[in-house]
Batch of 2 targets.
Target 1
Amino acid sequence: MQSCLIRLVDLRKSFGRNVVLDGLNLDIHDHESVVILGPSGTGKSVLLKHIVGILRPDSGQVFFRNQRIDNLSERNLEPIRKRFGFLFQGAALFDSLNVLENIAFPLREHTDHNDSQIRAIVADKLAMVGLSGTESKMPADLSGGMKKRVALARAIALDPEVVLYDEPTTGLDPIRSDVINELILKLNDELHVTSIIVTHDMTSAFKVADRMVMLSRGKVIAEGPPNAIRTNPNPEVQNFVLGKASPEDLEALHRNK
Amino acid sequence: MKFVEQLGAKALAAVETLGDYLCFVGTILYWTFRGPGRFARRQLLLQMFDIGTLSIPVVMITGAFIGAVLAIEALPQFQSIGLAGRIGSVINISVVKQIGPVLTAVMLAGRVGGALTAELGTMRVTEQIDALRAMATDPTRALAVPRFVACLIMTPVLTVFSDVLGMAGGWVMAVKVNAVDNAEYWLHTREALDLYTINTGFIKAFFFGAAIASIACYKGFKCGPGAQGVGRACTESFVLSFITILVMNFFVAVLMNALAPSGGGMF
């Protein structure tokens, strides 16, 4: 039995009248690669932000290694956050800093390494994501895929235990998407991290997942290994896996003609 | 009844925002004195260059022309009562105590305050501020503190440039163009312009710098979603800074006059 790394208990979150998480329960274990699926607007990114305390739940609890973290102050959360790497949907690189300074940022903030040690670590992380020699480039000079890889290098700069990926392949062409998928697998393999990947890209999901969790209307509606999700009888899950519009969506379209 | 309800809700929201802003300023001061970390220290010189050095030409040009305008508007009044030489004290006190610091602050609120709000607001909407938090870094410490300290240091420095050029502009118009006696001009200036008066301007500039940076950073951090949110935050930042500068100018002037060793002149 794997130990429970992250536990979400009856998580509820609303923005105004919009209920995004509605009593969500989820356990994530050490060293597994969990893909969180679901249509846009079902609270996947919101869920990810609750795990590191960027968002706080209206009710419910978040545990990391059996320690409750949703009620910690920002300052008390900092040691926990250092154990996470977060790849944001739009990469979220600092525009005013070059690649070297972006990746060096968490190292300068949280370690006592000197400049040459930091440069060596940055070079190592860049090699890991296949972007050696790009240290002096500015984020504006990078393509979408390169930005995500630099952001991933920054996310793993402090050798985290858990890496959170928020739609890592969104906006990339199929080849660049596959590069990111391979990178996720490589990092799982080499760094032995736990990966939580939010996506609605099914090709990517089936490639990187040990376990899949499907959300709908703020709740988990299906959970299991990729094959179990592929053969899940729930029509909502099937429509999502096959990329088919639901009969209700089609009816709404035709009604508006 | 609904009107009263709405008024109450707006008043409550305003008090809540003020409290939130004061907490934000408290956090900035806490990190400033506790040490904001390696990244913020590295950013400080860059921010001082952006906020200070790049603002020098704007502040100098506006200072020079305001000094010159003061001279040509006030001189006929002084000439009509035969006290043309006294114009030096009027121009230079006005420049050093009022126009220099206020004009510098207003220019900074527009040039720097707007840019700071836009930069931080864009960082917020592109999740860069969330990324900082996810990397266990307080955004106030890493982003607001170096900007705040740079503004505190550079606003008085820029005020020196504005003062010097304002005095020069007034002198050129009075002495060189309108033939006021040079020795008399400086004699009256020296009589009126003591160290306390000069420091009054710099103390004001220090407070203005604090207000501009804290308001600009606060508005940037709290900006709404999308391009519209950033635009609105920039406008609010400038308007609020401008009002704060003028209100603060009044209260600091009252305070400094009350504390003046010789009783001081009115403002």
Target 2
Amino acid sequence: MTLVWLLAALAAAPVLVFPLTSALGRRAGWPLAIGFLALAAAMIPSGREVLDGGEITQTVAWLPALDINLALRLDGLGLVFVMIALVIGAAVFLYSVEYLGESRQLGFYLWMAAFALGMVGLVLADDLILLFACWEITSLASFLLIARSGSGAESASARTLFMTFVGGLTLLIAVVLMIVTTGTTSMSQSLTSDVWTDRPGFTAVVAVLVAVAGFTKAAQFPFHPWLPDAMAAATPVSAYLHAAAVVKAGIYLLLRFSEAFSDVPVWNTLLISVGLFTAAMAALFAFQQHDLKRLMAYSTVSQLGLITAAIGVGTEKALTAAVIHTIAHALFKSGLFMMVGVIDHSAGTRDIRRLPELRRIMPWSFATVILGTAGMAGIPPLLGFVSKEMILGSMLEAPGPAWAGMLALAAAGAGSVLTFAYSAKIVLGAFVDGKRELKDCHGPSARLFLPAAAPIWVGLPLGLTVGVFNTPVERAVQAMGSSAAYPLKLWHGLAPELLVTAAAIAAGAALMTRRRALYRLVENDFLPGTGADALERIFHEARRLGRTISKSVAADHPRRHVVPPLIVLTLLLGVGSLAVLTAGDDVPATQPDLWRPVDVGLLVLIALGVVGTCRADSRIAATVSLGATGIAVTVQLFALGAPDVGLTQLMVEVLTVLVIMMVLRRLPGRFGHSHLRRPGGPLVLAGGLGIGAGVATWLLTGRREKSVPADYYLAEGTKVTGGDNLVNVILVEFRALDTLGELAVLGLAGVAIVAVLATVPSRTLDPPRRTHRPSLRPVQALRDPQARAALTDPQSNLRALQLLLRVVVPVLLVLSAVIFWRGHNAPGGGFIAALVASAAVALVYLSRPDDRAVGPPRVHIALIGGGVLTALATGLIGYADSSFLQPLYGTVAGTKLSTSLLFDVGVYAAVLGVVMVAFDRLGAAPEHDPDAESAAEAPLGRTKEGIV
Amino acid sequence: MTGSLLPLLVVVPLLGAALGALVPGGIARAMVVLSPVLTTAGGVALLVTHRDTPVLAHEVGGFIPGIAIPLVSDTFTAVMLTVTGLTTTACIVFALITGEARLRYFPTLVMMLSAGVNGALMTGDLFNLFVFIEVMLLPSYALIAMTGTWRRLGVGRLFVVINLVTSTILLVGIGLVYGVAGSVNMAVLTDMDADDPRFRLAVGVLLLALTVKAGVVPMHGWLPRAYPATSATVMALFSALHTKVAIYAVFRIHQTVLDGAAEWMTLLLVLFTLTMLVGAYGSLGERMIRRSLAWQMIAGVGYILVGVGIGTELGLAAGLFYMVHHILVMGSLLLSSGAIEHAYRTNQFVGLAGLMRREPVLAVIMALGMMSLIGFPPSSGFFGKVSLARAAADLDGFQLWLVFGALTVASIGTLLAMSRLWADVFWGPPMEEMPSRGRGRTEPPVVPEDTRMRLRTLVPAGALLLVSLAIFVVPGPLGEWCLQAADGLLDVTAYVESVTTS
């Protein structure tokens, strides 16, 4: 069976889970188990090829841009892990059918299948990125499996995800560094690169990163707490997790990369010290536990510590030991976990303090657990004995001085004593000791018991015939770059490791005779807090940091948010200007005649206007100051000789002030801003920014000849377009696309006003009455009826204005038409003309006694839409020649005309429309019905946050 | 596709906007769906075209090159058009489903926004870029204040003010560029000496304005304040369009005009990595889904722009890849939140619980979306993260560990933030049994037991998510486009030639 098909079949499993679970419920485990066994069988031909010394590779391109491939490779090491994942997976599935509750169990089977996929993908991957992807999938799958075990497991699953995620990140960094430095994404090529011998510094960095990644998954100190935490998951999940999947992924990674790192001192030291420390520490913790499952979890941590240390030693014997112990551990640990589930099912608890003497009703289970724990404790003639003894023996080969090896062996021996002790505690606690009566306990069913017992029982014959593993383990060790494997034998002679094992068994047995005293001794926690507490502490601190960050910008006032960009701008202008001034090359000289006396006067006026606007406390005063500034700018434009721009600016200023005045009627008369009492900061910022902008303007502008486009416009503009007014032809011909955009902006501003106001009830737009009432009081106090009428009666009040209108409006309209027409050749054009017409509209509006809109309803929207449409249509006419917005020329009645005139009509309509919208929508007087008053009392910002 | 058709990508939505204001609502709503579909189709057509023709340019109005405003499309443009068009379509469909599109002139405003986006993506002229950004902004001023909580009006003001200030800075920058270089045509500006400090200062001001729009730290604060107060639909639109167009312009201008070569790269990398970190952890401090996501937008901006900071072909390509991923996933997550709000009237953590069992479809969509954001397989985020890490590995010394460190710490922050969101919203007791945490105005609305989402409200989010998943399975084409786009940014010969000779 090819590797791609194996992965495809495994990828199909999660999909098949949906129909299977809906048809069979929890019994979906049977077809899945059969499928897994069938896949394992189908892999036998490939496996045989590998055992004969070959290797199978397959590559499909995935992301060619980064040379990432779905590259698969089956070698000896991969074969061992594939078989573990498939066979243990099948056993776990069989067991789950009986163990799980009578429901669909979709999540369980789905994530278990995904888990198996990730694990098999991981050990087959020959692409470094694919390896990382599968690594992450196993992280995710374990998180999901733990999380689905009820609310108690949720925070535990989050901690698990966090730990494995951190390891994933270090792995990612390691693999991208490897890809860049070794120049290939292929793992097998990368691991055999010369880089690892040529660049020791780099190698050490990558080795540490990989080691950390391996430690997080293999639950090595200080990343171990997640594994006991993950006990919250259902028992079959734990069995798979501990025996075949996540933690074995960590071991696989360390084994795989030992090809490159087995001679790197950092790698040796780190793995041996962390591994042995973890082994001893976790064994002690395991001995402390009452909950059988937690005990098992710590025992896994401890056993993996031994394997890690062996990988760290990195010699042939050590690697052989690591591989064979991985196999042994997968068998006895998966079995033991499932047996804990069997005990749990039978007695209703896993707490050894509450378990009765189960051996009386469960003799077979008793025997099975004895066998399993014996393997764990390394008692002959089991497979666990062979592997454990080899690990102990390999410790003496640890690189460095001879005492280091002795020390390592001593540490491993100490761990073995504890291992024996906790193994005995399992047996004695569950089956021998206990005061509870047996009446509510029952023996397990065969369907639950057999899949659990099978992995343990096979350890017995395998231990006796350990030679069958010689070839597979040799191939696996060869895959890690060693020339040959150390031969596996049950009896190694009287080696030091045998003595250590014997001593450990003796010491452990001696300890257990005084177990009650010992249990009391270790009852209290050694440490002030658990690893989970420490992690929760980290999460808590991270959240606090998060709140600090989000609070730091928690203001809706624009002031808070405008300041940072302005500070950065000031810094940029300052640093940039300094860079210009200190650069070696001279700044080009300024062009002549840039300054005139009038500029200084206008600058002072503009500055005064700005200061006045900022200092004003009354809104009206601010508006007047703003208007003054605008007029001064207008004068400046005229002084510069830009009548078109100047005229436009003038009209815009006038209309802006008008619109602002209308809005002001709805706002309080005064700003009431208190911040002006402490103007230091804003003043410094404004001053700095002003100076920066001034210097930058002085340095960057006015220092070159006319630009190429300017020369072109002057030389060719009129010739090309037939218009004498260059400003106008630039606007409506050369850069008509800009004008089209601005036209849309202006026109749609009207639509925007209508759209926003339509979503807000009009009464909420008005402030409470008291803010504008005072102004009316003097009027009401007037006794003289005529004087009073003059101020309050709109009709008589407006007579003069209405009279004026009759003269002014026609004049304005004619003026507007003239300005429009002459625009192409002289100052004028659609924009200015429309603003003039708008002035007429404004006058008409102001002369009305009521707030009715000028013109029929929706005429303004029609003008806007029509205007934009006209401009667009004109642009499309250009396609008749070659391009959008290309002006076409023709002569009508002796006058040279351009389609851009039509474009200008669009401008005219849209501008007029938007001004009419402004008057219509913003001009309506505030309403004063009593209901509105109370509604308006509640300020908008304080209303409930919720969707409206 | 030929160059002369490029203006239609602006004209069609703008035409829709103008017509939409005049015709009855039903027709306008039909047009507003059609418009981004056409944009997407245009983007795809351009992608096909650029396989043979790397750059298409068109001088609008038929004037001579250098005088006319050029509209230009290369692979970068085409990818952006396609993905923004796709996301806009999803947002609009969602607005139709929730009824938001029935608000008066909503279709018109959205179509104008699209026109601005398309124009800004295609223009080869800096002043024209300013104009199209204004075309984007104006309808946005209205959209942000039309739907959402009452706070939308207050933050609408914030949004307007910050954008007016930013547009002013942008305009000043363009003015200074013209002052120094005598042109605002990007192809012409490539002739400028990128080491001239005067030119650099001018372009620097321009880029500053764009980074404010993008929400780069320390100028980010307005974004997580303003966006969550409007509706989910509008926020999703803005997330896909506003910040991303600003980023697009940074890529384009930094590479094309400044030639990408500057010793301020380290400074840029510091700023961008800081943006990643601040965004990731700011997300952790919030108690509302969309506020948390708003900070993720900032983090995403950091991730994307780090590509510019790296500055190599792979760096730019990785940034672009991340941008495509981020647009899609952020759109999916925001629209999912919108669906939650549509059914449950809140997106506050305190008002939501136990949604995993209550709304399994939503849970799947959001879980995958969040996984994508964190960078887990099987999603586009996986390759986004991997390609950035791969590109960063080409750096040396301080820069290398700066980016790796930030990538690690920021990823952890995002993981924690998303775990928290998940734990608060999807785990926990069924909503009816939630302990009352009534504290005045934040008291969660009472949820009737039979309240469930309607599945169709999840369709747009699900569709965007599917694209993200598809990118994981078949990342090849997108990777190819991103590389091609990065090549186009590094080697501007084809771009310049196309603009100056067409």
